[in-house]
Amino acid sequence: MAPGPLPPPPPPPLLTWGAQVGRGARRALLRGALGLSLALLLLWASLFLYGSFYWAYLPAAAVLRPLHLAFRCPQVLLYGQLYRISLELELRSLR
């Protein structure tokens, strides 16, 4: 009885290690691409929703008038010094 064909020898350990690393790298690359795609989709959706809200709910400036304040400066105030100015406006109702 003649012996059958011999099975192929097992691959060297370096090749099996390379195949395992290649699978892991491919999986990591796919996960990274999926994560980046998801992040870009979320960024686009958030910008779209923000723009839609801004356009729909915030009114455009209807009246623009220059405001000229006349102020006589006493010598106590110095040029280049920072000051805090508060303005209180009372607008009458049109109704």
Structure keywords:
elongated; mainly alpha; 1 helix; 0% strand; lipid metabolism; single chain; endoplasmic reticulum; membrane; 95 residues
Q: How are the SSEs ordered, and which strands pair?
A:
Blueprint: H1 13-57
How would you describe what is shown here?
With 95 residues, the chain is mainly alpha-helical. It folds into 2 domains: 16-64; 66-94. Helices cover 47% and strands 0% of the residues. It is built from 1 helix and no strands. It has one helix spanning 13-57. The longest helix has 45 residues, at 13-57. The chain is elongated, with a radius of gyration of 37 Å.
Quick structural gist:
The chain is mainly alpha-helical and 95 residues long.
Poorly predicted ranges (pLDDT <50, ≥5 residues)? none
**Estimated share of beta-strand residues:** under 5%
Strand tally is 0
Structural class: mainly alpha
> How many structural domains in the coordinates?
2
End-to-end separation in angstroms reads 113 Å
Could you report the average pLDDT, rounded to the nearest whole number?
80
**Overall outline:** elongated
Overall helicity: 40-55%
Note the run of SSEs as H and E. H
How many helices? 1
How would you sum up the major sheet? none
Radius of gyration: 37 Å
